[in-house]
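re: ur question from yesterday

yeah so i grabbed the chain u mentioned. its 234 aa long if i counted rite. heres the sequnce exactly as i have it in my notes:
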Amino acid sequence: MDSKKTSNERLYLNNSLIDYPLHLGEKKFLKDGSVISYPGCTVICKIPEDTSLSIDIAHYQSLLINFLPKNTYAFLPVSSFHMTLFDCCNIETKGTNYWPKGISDSMSYSDIAKDFKKRIENLSLPKSFSLELERFYGGFSMILKPNSESSEHLMRSTRDKLSDLFQIKMENHYRYTFHITLAYPLKQLDVNEIDKLIEYEEELKKVFNSNWPILKLENPVLCVFDNMLSFQEV
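ran it thru and got these structure tokens back, copy pasting raw so excuse formatting
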């Protein structure tokens, strides 16, 4: 997610943020909430099910489900909870300047991931990252930030190394905002609904941060996916 988008929540939800239109479903879900094929590969920190953190995130997700107007979001299953460390490639980057150099766009994402796996064999990825919740966002995301300068440097330098190894640099590489996606918006909220949501998110943030002042996200792994419901480690 882009910092220009995350720092302008109200404008984005109102579909009035210049250069950042509100993409309902984001080409990943239909208007009725049905999932769409959206293949790719990525480096993520999974949030294992049945851990205290996963259970708590699911609780906050359920609070949002109950708070938001019905059928306005497609909520993700707990099994898919993760934080993206580095976007590799997907169906939307195929045929663009952000496709990995030296990789044929005719290759399957599984084969691309195997190639990437070889490239990072000698890269010692950090075992964990230390973050904190900056805020809930848009009813669909938890915006995270490294909780210290050293953690910020570790995460950004790891992204730079992956960028060099995979020969990928997205346009927002330096503006990338770490986050955990809870849902995808399907319908635009009205102004009153947006105001109420932003106020409610601030309440959720205070409670969450009192219980989780530090978030440890561990074991970044290279994964392939066919849609946003499941991510398979390579």
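noticed a couple things. Residues 109 and 129 are 27 Å apart (CA to CA). also Residues 3-233 form a domain with the Cyclic Phosphodiesterase; Chain: A, fold (CATH 3.90.1140.10).
anyway ttyl
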